[in-house]
Amino acid sequence: MNELDNKFINPFNQDKDFAGCSIFGMMSLEGKRFSSEDPIKAISNMHDRSNGLGGGFAVYGIYPDFKDYYALHIMYLSKDAKEKTDRVLASCFNIIYDEEMQTKAAKVVDPPLLWRYFVEPKKRRSPNLPEDECVIQAVMRINTETGKAFVFSSGKDMGVFKGVGYPEDIAEYFCLEDYYGYLWSCHGRFPTNTPGWWGGAHPFNILDWTVVHNGELSSYGINRRYLEMYGYKCTLQTDTEVLAYAVDLLMRRQRLPIEVVSQILAAPFWSEIDSAEPKRCNVLRALRQTYGSLLMNGPFSVIVAHHGEMIGLTDRVKLRPLIAATRGNMLYLSSEEAAIRLVSPQLDKLWAPRGGEPVIGRVGDKKIVGSAVKVEEPQ
Amino acid sequence: MKSYLPVDFIVERDESKCIRCKVCVNQCTYETHNYDAQDDVIRSKDENCVNCQRCVTMCPTHALSIKKNLGPFRDNANWSSEVIKDIKKQAETGGVLLTGMGADKPYLTYWERLLLNASQVTNPSIDPLREPMEIRTYLGAKPDALEIEFEDGDIDLKTKLAPQLILETPIMFSAMSYGAISLNVHESLARAAMRAGTYFNTGEGGLDSRLYKYGERAIVQVASGRFGVHSSYLNAGAAIEIKIGQGAKPGIGGHLPGEKVTEDIARTRMIPVGTDALSPAPQHDIYSIEDLRQLIYALKEATNYSKPVSVKIAAVHNVAAIASGIVRAGADIIALDGVRGSTGAAPKVIRDNVGIPIELAIASVDQRLRDEGIRNKASIVAAGGFRSSGDIVKAIALGADAVYVATAALIALGCTVCQKCYTGKCPWGIATSDPWISKRVNPEIGAERLVNLLRGWSMEIKEIMGGMGINAIESLRGNRLHLRGVNMTDTELKILGVKMAGE
Q1: For residue range B481-496, what is the model confidence (pLDDT) as tens digits?
Q2: Which of A158, A186, B366, B469 is deepest in the core (most CB within 10 A)?
Q3: CA distances in angstroms from B353 to B97, B100, B107, B248, listed in the order given
């Protein structure tokens, strides 16, 4: 990773990524798949919130024919890296199918070689290790050991598409018009320090978890050091990476629900905790005492997704924007209201979530958590 | 033997201003000033003056000033006046040179070489006067993870947390024993801790029963002499601290001379009046880490596992490994006292030469506990010469949960750091057990001065955090990206875990 670190990811040896951004998420609460048309239109409408140095999409439900296999999207910065990575893959997985990812000419910068694999972990290698852990280990190994290879998507029946360019150009490059999914999260990036590195674009992904993020974490230094205690290696030096790992640690490994996790990442103020009823006060206090190092301090708005769930969250004083809306069975989350209005002029409900209060949409559940704050009734 | 020692200070009196009120005569406990009734003049014995500034401060007409005796020795970088005087002193007494307060040499500080960060453009700074800014801190062991139960929309905590101390500001008063300091100073600290929502540390001399009412804000210390340690003392405090070592005198014990052991102090310390109170160098029941574990659990048993147990050590060479052992032995809090830590009395050669700077100790202990995955098992409290809120913010960013201050607290009460605490004659009424001198500190006024200091520093900490765009202290703790180093070697930067300024 040193080579990657120095030359591609972080040539100026910056502490972390500084970025302004646009984020957009769209999800069918019935789990019905839909085309890329609306998500692309919406994120393109926020063109000026990014600067052409990063765009990306996470799509859920795109590989119905291979839904039982992990879909690995890997970018290679050299042929040599692919040979090395293929050896790692062959040792860890049964490769069901692989191909070069379909692309077409678009206004993108220095695209790497992009490859897609559908794989299943080899059981006999470590029979007691859960499959998810096998995949995480392989991803960490490829990203840190092989040099110039980077796994940017590793979930089942979902995929991340990202690179250096405006989001609409990235969509064109990856031919996203051919894909259908029930949940799309999108990102346009405005980094102030990172050059054209395809892996540095959002969404960030591990297994089927994705994060798109607008913000800068002033707490990054301690968030990172806390996660390092639990074996996460923060190699990309971006804020978003720690958010993704924090979500993985709390939700997947420690099995805390998002309602609780949001109270960790964007903890309520002590004054609020002190005045809560005793049982709740007890829980909230223990959360801050125990997970204080995972408080995400500084401006952020974020969309976290995994199969069946899309979550929007801002920092506790809401220093970055987030708007939520519903129309029929569709839930929208966006940096700007205009982007939502563009794809759905009529809305059932539109609201600005409070700082630190999550908006949670779940497939099969029409009730949106965190929709209490109403801005506007339908026309 | 004729003394070859020159005077340290020269008292200058402006006769045209002096009104012969004799305040200076009465205030000086070293008998520097004498009123000569025959000539109606006040004369001063320069050789008695310690430059504590008591007479200067109290003189109603500002007639007094104290000058340093710049002579008589020739300038010499190696054989400084201090060195020459020390040698002469020992040649005349044959004893160990005693001193008070913390190391006074400039070469042991890193705070000036660490600089703090602030937000510009890419994230907003926060105005603490208009928006919440949280510095509440909990000390004690934290679990690896929490188990939370949901039942019919009801939320409940299944994990039971270890007992915690709650600090409304991450600054506590460090251990100063009753006997070394007066009852009034103890009471000032206790009242201030109550009001400011922090803690004072009793030090090793027990807690006078009149101060038990402040027990909820007391950390009761258990040191090698076991002075004043009994069941109700242990249960009176909010936490218990085992004192292994002290930054000013690592590896050696304490000595309270018999003349300071008055009736009240004797009762509290559980020793006869007028006897020397000697703390052995080691705790004689702790010769190994497993012995420490036994004492930690003995104290937990004695208090029904209701209070966190802290272990205080001097920061010495292997501090990281020692700290790791202490955490594994069951301590809930580990207190580190750096080489600049203060004392009521210590051999000067020990104070100025033994131990390591607290900055390096915080950095290496915090990192080691993280490397071993046990940082959450104990809180780190740093001590040893914190002079300002800036020092404190830097300590927290390096990895401390909170800090102990003692010298700064005493300065708030009047101390001028004259370094003569060991004489027991403190003219400011602080480091003394003389009931007549002790009256100079009024516990109510003392508490007010201390609360003011804590308030001022807390507001400054909030200002600094706001500038960084951080509104909760847990996001600053251990966040070394908000520190940059100047004028340091690569090794120093590496141990501190900070980047060079400009990087």
Answers
A1: 999 999 999 999 999 9
A2: A186
A3: 13, 14, 11, 9
